[in-house]
Structures are given as structure tokens and as C-alpha cells.
Design a protein that fits this description.
heterotrimer, A mainly alpha (626), B mainly alpha (194), C mainly alpha (99), A: 626 residues, mainly alpha, two-stranded antiparallel sheet, globular, B: 194 residues, Four Helix Bundle (Hemerythrin (Met), subunit A), 2 domains
Chain lengths: 626, 194, 99
């Protein structure tokens, strides 16, 4: 059964090729069939492989297909590696990807670039599958760059608007900074281990690099650079809010559910390396904590519904990084899974709302949509509840609780991290329900442009069910003894053992975070339904602060002063590129010699013979004189 | 010991060598002078006749140097065949006295002084190289036609074949170049190359 | 009479030939000068071969002879062609192939 892994990856690429080459000749229904089918089949295959794996967890499955290339001792193969970690990612990519493709059939149906859209989406799914299934880091990097490319193509999908193209370029360039760091990290690893096979590497690292050694620190910092770029974490988080220029399904698939969590995957995959560098681990946790606060507070002031979700995504990935940093590997991956469900759901529902409101992104111009779009409202509410971690009934609660508890009680946890996480939980609840109350409640009543069809509603309902129920496979052990998830990933990721084992304290902490969530919801209710004039007044009063938050803590401006201005200044100064001078000089001297030598080409044979004689004389002179 | 083909019972070897040396210098002088005459004549036929003289004297030198077979070939092929070919061509071109006047006008001191000095300097340099690396003087020996023939058709058989090929190519090339092609510019304006 | 005297003769003749090529503008004279140079090289071979009692020198002369014959055949054909085409034998007049 495991040989099917190769086909999981193959189908999206086939779909891409067919759509890319035959786009013009295919009818719309044919495009839909191919585009959705080439993700649906892998989803089915993943189910098969996954069930087979669950019945018989025989550790790590390697499927070798071809050798990619060989250069010295580097011989990466087109080889797939299936273990619990990869299986979870593959499941999310294919399953959520399939639902989003289904949704796109209706969402994009009036778009000129219908075929192009599905071609890119299929390419993305294929690249993402390579990323998570790769057996060596070179192959992983191929997928890594592939998803970056698709992200670029899809952010700039509506390329007629220069703003969208700018956003695409920004995303590409910013992630490229991280990618460069990651490549250097790969070079470092290869230089010291002569291999980039993940398993060999993970086996060799602890023996060769001592804990806390500078090489391990540098290696993990460089990889972290790549993860930070891809996952939009501090300091490279600036591209994600702009990436919302792409169509909503793209935001749901790439910029919420899958690609942006590639950094989480990378760190989880190379956790052995990170464990050898405790300082970097702490750095990961701090990055996560800071990011979740910065992004959360920025989300509080956004008016664009997709921007709220974008900042929310950054913030939630911050939670994952926090979990990774404290060594709560399975909690991070669990949160990734749950987040993929509810964030994809939220983006898709937001997309439907935006479509119904004639492409209006501003939530304050919506309002009262609860009655007009009941299914959208209820599914959106389910996703929002999960995001805000409403206690006991939502999946988000269980995954976030695991992170918060381990950020305090875990081996590397401390109270500051927990405090940041808990504050973040409060902020999350506020901005999430602010979104709900502003968009779906209120007195305003709008004509909606259209009623969402089944292809939009079915994915939403499925995702809503998952965002509610997915949490029950992993429960805190003081509530119930369910640890299906952590038991499953235990094979690839070490278990995080809480240092403090007091159920009473755990209850207390759960109570505090529940209170935070409920308090946040109440705050949002109070501010945006009871007293809507209050926020408006504050916005007026603290307009500078509001602007600061609205622009995501003004990181763009910081980078403009720190990076862009100096670079443009230098290029301004060096307009007459001084290195060019050297080459111009070479060209000039060549021309000069040419005009000189062309005079000797006078077509007179006697001159040529004299030249020959002179040459002979020269040689003889050299023989005589030396 | 066969040192020279001119062995005579009457004279001692030293005497013979002396005589040959004198003959060599005389023939060398003839060769050099006639060659100079070749390159300074204005009339092509005069130059050719001087060249024949030069080749004949060189043939004599070959004879002295112990290569009678080559001396014969020099006379037959160079002085005979090649020069005759030249004379034929000169006759065919039918260059009249006007050409001689032209030649005289072309060969002004301004033209020949520079190259002559260059050649003289080159000669001096050549001599210097030669004097700096004196050859071991073993005297000249007779190399008969038999030895040459055996060597030519065993060791150099392939080279002989290739030479044959070269001559073949030369003949075909010369035929092709020399053949007058009829030029038709247009089928209504038929015009032959005179 | 020795190897060196032969080589000196050969050198002198070669230089005369070279001078001829350089100073004459008539193609026929240039060809004659080339013949002189080839012959001078032949003299050097003959003397070198004789001084070592070695047939290789003479064999080289034979090859020079063959090359000279081929060269003269082609060269004279070209002379005729040039005369037909340009109505002159002035080598400086035929200098269209300049850079």
C-alpha cells in the first residue's frame, strides 16, 4: 500500500501539466474536473495510506523512485519519507486542499483565469507534498521553493492591479531572505555531515555536535531563518498581511492552512538539531511569543476582514513557534492541524461574504449578515469559536491549552511565556468576536449579491465539523485520558513531559485561559454591540496608536528606513557603477586594439610576409639574447 | 671510406678535398649571384634563365655533398619541369615591354631597401645562431640512391602515398582553376568570357 | 666543405628568396622567390643528411620537391586566373581582402 505515496505527489503535478499546457483547449467543466480531481485522488490515496499506516505503524516508510542528481557525495533522490509527522501534514494538505479546490470551483467560476488558477493551485499542492514528504533536505528545498513560487504566482493572480503585483513581489523577496538563510544552513550541514538525508542527519547530529556548541547554534539559527521567513514570524512577518491581495481560496490554502506552516514543519522535522541548541530553542519560543502579541494587537484595529485573519494567522503560528520553542512538539503540530481547519474555514467563509458584498473587504461596511447568510454565519461562528478557543466544545481550546500548559510547565517553559500566551488568548478572543459582531450583527441590512451554492457550503460545513471535533482526539490528561494524537506522532517527535505535575494547578490554568477567552468575547460584545461609539471615540483619541497598530507595528516603515533607504541611497550614489568602469575600459581597449590591428590587415601579401619575417627575427633574437 | 664521389687514384685524399672545396666555393658564388639576379630582373624570362643557372649550380653542390641522385632530380624536375612550366605560363600571358616598364616603376629603392635590410639582419641573426651552436664536423658522406630508395619505400611508404594524393589534388585543382568557364549572365544576353 | 658551409649557403639563398618575395609586386616573381626559398630549405636537408650518412635528408628533399611541384601547379593556375580577372599581375592591386 505504501508505494502509493509516489502517486499522491504525482497527481497534482499531472493536473498542473495538463491544465498548464491545454488550458486553452479545455472547457470549464473539464478544468474543474481535472483541477479538483488531481487533488481529490491524492486525498483518497492519503486516506488509504493513512488507514494502512494506522493499522500497522511500521515506523518510517521510505519510497525510493529515482535518483535526482549526483554531485560528489551529494546524491539526493526523488525519495519519499512517510512517518506520523509527514502523514499529518499530507493529510491536511490533500484533505483541506481538496475542500478548498471544491470551493474554488464556485468561487472562481466567473474569473478569466480559471484554468490558470487551478494550474497554479495544483502545482502548489504538488510542491507542498514534496516539501512534507521529502526524504532529504535538498528535495525538501525543491518543494520549499516550489510553494514560494506558487505563493508568488497566486498572490499576484489578479495581476492587472499593480498593487497585487507589488504584494506578490514583497512576499517573494521577503521569504527569499529566509530561504537564503536556510540554504546557507543546508550548506553548513552538508559541509559537516556529508549528507542531507534527514534520517541520517538526525541520527548523526547528537554524536557530532555537542549540546550548545556554536556549530549547532549556527546551524539551527540558519534553518530558523528559513522557517521564520516562510511562516511569517518576527522579523520577517511583513509579507503576510499584503499577501491577502490573492483570491480568498489562496489565502485559505497557502497563507493560512499549509504553506505558512512549512516553517513549523521544518523545525519539527529537524528538532534534533534544535535540541542541541537550547539558546535557539529559547529564541524560537521568544519569537513566537512576541509575534503572537504583535500580530494579535495589530489584528485588533484592522478593518479589512482578510487582514484581521492574516494577522490572526501570524499570531496563531506564533503559538506554534512558542510550542516548538518549549519543546512541545506534538502540541505545535496539533495546533497546526486544528488551525488548518478553522483558519481555512474562516478564510473561505470570509471569501463568501466578500463575494456576496460585491468585493467589499471593509467589515464596517457589512453588518447584519447573520440573517442573510445563515449557513455562512454558523460555520464562521464555529471557526471563530475554535480560533478564540471557547472552552470545552471547540478544538482550538484543546490545542491552545496544551501549548499554554506546556509553555509554563514544560521543560523549557516559564511564566513569562505563559503570560504572553494567555494575554494573546484574550486578544485573540477580542478580535475574533469583534469580527463576528461587526460583520454579522448590527442593524445594517444589505442586499447580498448572490446565495452561496453547495460547492461553497459543503466545504464550509465539513471544515466547521472538523474545527469543532478535531480537538477530542487529544485531551488534557486531567480531563480525560485521550492522547491519540500525541501517541501517534510520538514516533517522529519526542514527547514533552511537564515538569510540574499538579492536576490542581492545571485546572487553575485552564480556568484562567477559559476566563480570558470568555472575557475577550464579552469585551468584544460590550465594545462593538453595546457601546459601538466607544471604539470610534478611542480611535479618534488615540489615532497615533491606532495607526501604529493598523500598520502592524510599522515594521514596513522600519524596514524602509533600515534597509530600503540605504540600499536606494547606495545605488543612487553608485549610479555610474564603478565596477562597470572596469569592463567599459576593457571594451574600449579592445576597440582601440581593433582599430590598430585592422590597419595591419591591408590586404597586401608583401606586408604579411614582412610581418612573418619580423616574427622570425624576434624569435631568433630571443634565442640569441637569452 | 667513401668520402667523396670524385676519388681518383692519382691524387691524395687531401688534395681532392682541397679541389672540391674550391669547386664548392665557386659554384656557391655562382648560385648566390644568379639567385640575386633572379630577384632583380625586370623581364620574367631573364629571371627564369638565371634561376635555371642557380638550380644547376645547386645541383652541382648536391653532387659534391654526396647526393648524386638528388642532383639528378634537381636538374630534371626543378631546372627542367618546373621552370618549363613557368616559361609556358609567361609565354601564355604574353607580357610585353609595357610590363617591363611597369616592373621598373614598381621596384624603386624605397620599396626594396627596407625588406633587404630586414633580410640582412635576419641572415646575421641566423648566422649567429649557427655559430653559437657549432655542429660536430664529421665530414660529408655519400648516401646512395639504393639507401634512399629502400628507406623511402619501407619507412616512408605512407608519406609517399600521401604525396601521390597531394599531387593528384594539385593536378585536379590546377585543371579546375585553369579551365575557362563559360559565363552566361542572362539567357538573352549571352556573353562569353573572351 | 662542411655541414656549416652548406647551412650558410642555404641561409643566404633563403634570405635572397625572402627578400624577393618582399620586394617584388609581380606574382610570377613572388612564385619564383618561393621556389628559391624551398630549394634553400632542401639544401639544408641534404647537407644535414650527408653529414650523418643518413638517407632521411634526401627523402625530405624529395617531399619538398613534390610540394614544390604541387605548389607551382596551383600557383600558376591562380596566376592565370588572376590575370584573366584583373588584367594585372600586381599583388598590391589585388588587396580587396583587407580588414
Amino acid at each position: 500500500m505504501q508505494h502509493l505515496i509516489g502517486y499522491i505527489v504525482l497527481f497534482p503535478f499531472l493536473g498542473f501539466l495538463v491544465l498548464f499546457l491545454l488550458n486553452r483547449y479545455l472547457s470549464k467543466s473539464m478544468v474543474s474536473l481535472i483541477g479538483v480531481g488531481s487533488v481529490g485522488i491524492p486525498a483518497l490515496l492519503t486516506m488509504l495510506v493513512g488507514l494502512n499506516y494506522l493499522n500497522d505503524p511500521d515506523g518510517t516508510v521510505r519510497v525510493e523512485t529515482w535518483e535526482w542528481f549526483q554531485a560528489g557525495s551529494l546524491d539526493p533522490g526523488i525519495t519519499f519519507l512517510l512517518d506520523p509527522l509527514a502523514l499529518i501534514f499530507v493529510f491536511i494538505v490533500t484533505f483541506v486542499g481538496f475542500l478548498i479546490h471544491l470551493y474554488s470551483v464556485e468561487f472562481m467560476k466567473n474569473d478569466d483565469g480559471y484554468g490558470r488558477f487551478f494550474a497554479y493551485m495544483n502545482l502548489f499542492i504538488g510542491s507542498m507534498l514534496i516539501l512534507v514528504l521529502a526524504d532529504n533536505l535538498v528535495f525538501l528545498y525543491l518543494g520549499w521553493e516550489g510553494v514560494g513560487l506558487c505563493s508568488f504566482l497566486l498572490i499576484g493572480f489578479w495581476y492587472r492591479d499593480p498593487e497585487n503585483v507589488k504584494a506578490a513581489k514583497k512576499a517573494f523577496v521577503v521569504t527569499r531572505i529566509g530561504d537564503t538563510s536556510m540554504v546557507i544552513g543546508l550548506f553548513l550541514l552538508f559541509a559537516h555531515f556529508q549528507t542531507l538525508e534527514i534520517q541520517e542527519l538526525l541520527a548523526a547530529i547528537p554524536g557530532k555536535w555537542a549540546e550548545g556548541s556554536s556549530l549547532a547554534t549556527w546551524g539551527s539559527i540558519l534553518l530558523l531563518g528559513g522557517a521564520v521567513g516562510k511562516s511569517a514570524q518576527l522579523p520577517l512577518q511583513v509579507w503576510l498581511p499584503d499577501a491577502m491581495a490573492g483570491p480568498s481560496p489562496v489565502s485559505a490554502l497557502i497563507h493560512a492552512a499549509t504553506m505558512v506552516t512549512a516553517g513549523v514543519y521544518l523545525i519539527a522535522r529537524t528538532h534534533v538539531l534544535f535540541l542541541q541548541a537550547p539558546d535557539v530553542m529559547e529564541g524560537v519560543a521568544i519569537i513566537g511569543a512576541l509575534t503572537l502579541l504583535i500580530a494579535g494587537t495589530s489584528a485588533l484595529t484592522q478593518t479589512d476582514i482578510k487582514k484581521v485573519l492574516a494577522y490572526s494567522t501570524i499570531s496563531q503560528i506564533g503559538y506554534m513557534f512558542l510550542a516548538l520553542g518549549v519543546g512541545a512538539w506534538s502540541a505545535a503540530v496539533f495546533h497546526f492541524m486544528v488551525h488548518a481547519f478553522f483558519k481555512a474555514l474562516l478564510f473561505l467563509a470570509a471569501g463568501a461574504v466578500i463575494l456576496a458584498m460585491h468585493h467589499e473587504h471593509n467589515m464596517f461596511k457589512m453588518g447584519g449578515l447573520r440573517k442573510r447568510m445563515p449557513v455562512i454565519f454558523w460555520t464562521f461562528l464555529a471557526g471563530a469559536a475554535s480560533l478564540a478557543a471557547v472552552p470545552l466544545i471547540t478544538a482550538g481550546f484543546y490545542s491552545k491549552d496544551a501549548i499554554l500548559w506546556l509553555s509554563f510547565a514544560g521543560e523549557k517553559g516559564n511564566s513569562a511565556l505563559w503570560l504572553a500566551g494567555t494575554a494573546g488568548a484574550f486578544i485573540t478572543a477580542v478580535y475574533t468576536f469583534r469580527m463576528i459582531f461587526v460583520t454579522f450583527y448590527g442593524k445594517q441590512d444589505h442586499e447580498t449579491a448572490y446565495r452561496p451554492g453547495y460547492l461553497i457550503l459543503i466545504p464550509l460545513i465539513v471544515l466547521a465539523v472538523f474545527s469543532m471535533l478535531a480537538g477530542f482526539i487529544e485531551m488534557p490528561h486531567n480531563m480525560a485520558h485521550v492522547d491519540l494524537f500525541s501517541g501517534f506522532v510520538q514516533f517522529s517527535l519526542p514527547e514533552a513531559m511537564p515538569q510540574i505535575n499538579k492536576p490542581g494547578l492545571e485546572w487553575l490554568f485552564q480556568g484562567i485561559s477559559s476566563l480570558m477567552t470568555l472575557g475577550g468575547i464579552f469585551t468584544a460584545y460590550f465594545l462593538y454591540l453595546r457601546r459601538p461609539e466607544k471604539p470610534r471615540q478611542w480611535a479618534h483619541q488615540y489615532s497615533r496608536t491606532r495607526q501604529f497598530l493598523l500598520e502592524g507595528w510599522k515594521f514596513d516603515r522600519l524596514y524602509r528606513y533600515l534597509v530600503i533607504r540605504p540600499v536606494t541611497y547606495l545605488s543612487e550614489v553608485n549610479r555610474e557603477d564603478f565596477i562597470d568602469r572596469i569592463y567599459i575600459l576593457m571594451a574600449e581597449s579592445t576597440r582601440w586594439w581593433h582599430t590598430l590591428l585592422v590597419k595591419t590587415q591591408n590586404g597586401r601579401v608583401r606586408w604579411y610576409i614582412m610581418g612573418t619575417a619580423l616574427g622570425v627575427l624576434l624569435i631568433l633574437a630571443i634565442i640569441i639574447l637569452i | 671510406m667513401k668520402t667523396s664521389p670524385l676519388i681518383s687514384e692519382a691524387l691524395s685524399p687531401e688534395k681532392i678535398m682541397e679541389k672540391i672545396d674550391i669547386l664548392f666555393y665557386i659554384t656557391s658564388a655562382v648560385a648566390v649571384i644568379s639567385t640575386i639576379m633572379v630577384i632583380t630582373r625586370y623581364h620574367a624570362v631573364h629571371a627564369l634563365l638565371y634561376l635555371v643557372v642557380s638550380f644547376l649550380s645547386i645541383a652541382l653542390i648536391f653532387y659534391f655533398a654526396g647526393a648524386p641522385f638528388i642532383a639528378a632530380l634537381e636538374v630534371i624536375i626543378y631546372a627542367g619541369a618546373i621552370m618549363v612550366l613557368f616559361i609556358f605560363v609567361v609565354m601564355m600571358l604574353n607580357l610585353g615591354p609595357r610590363t617591363m616598364e611597369q616592373e621598373r616603376g614598381w621596384t624603386t629603392p624605397a620599396i626594396w631597401i627596407g625588406p633587404s635590410i630586414l633580410s640582412a639582419v635576419l641572415l646575421v641573426a641566423f648566422m649567429t645562431v649557427l655559430m653559437n651552436n657549432p655542429a660536430e664536423d664529421t665530414g660529408l658522406n655519400l648516401v646512395g640512391v639504393q639507401e634512399v630508395g629502400i628507406s623511402l619505400f619501407t619507412e616512408y611508404l605512407l608519406a609517399v602515398e600521401l604525396t601521390g594524393l597531394l599531387l593528384m589534388a594539385a593536378i585536379i585543382g590546377a585543371y579546375h582553376l585553369g579551365s575557362r568557364e563559360k559565363k552566361i549572365y542572362h539567357r538573352y544576353l549571352e556573353k562569353t568570357d573572351q | 666543405m662542411s655541414l656549416e658551409s652548406g647551412l650558410i649557403l642555404s641561409g643566404i639563398l633563403f634570405m635572397i628568396g625572402l627578400t624577393g618575395v618582399m620586394i617584388r609586386r609581380n606574382i610570377i616573381f613572388m612564385l619564383l622567390s618561393v621556389e628559391i626559398m624551398l630549394n634553400a630549405a632542401g639544401i639544408a636537408f641534404i647537407f644535414a643528411g650527408s653529414s650523418r650518412a643518413d638517407p632521411n635528408g634526401q627523402i625530405m628533399f624529395l617531399f619538398i620537391l613534390a610540394v614544390a611541384a604541387a605548389e607551382v601547379a596551383i600557383g600558376l593556375a591562380l596566376v592565370i586566373l588572376i590575370y584573366q580577372k584583373f588584367k594585372t599581375l600586381d599583388i598590391d592591386g589585388i588587396s580587396f581582402m583587407k580588414g
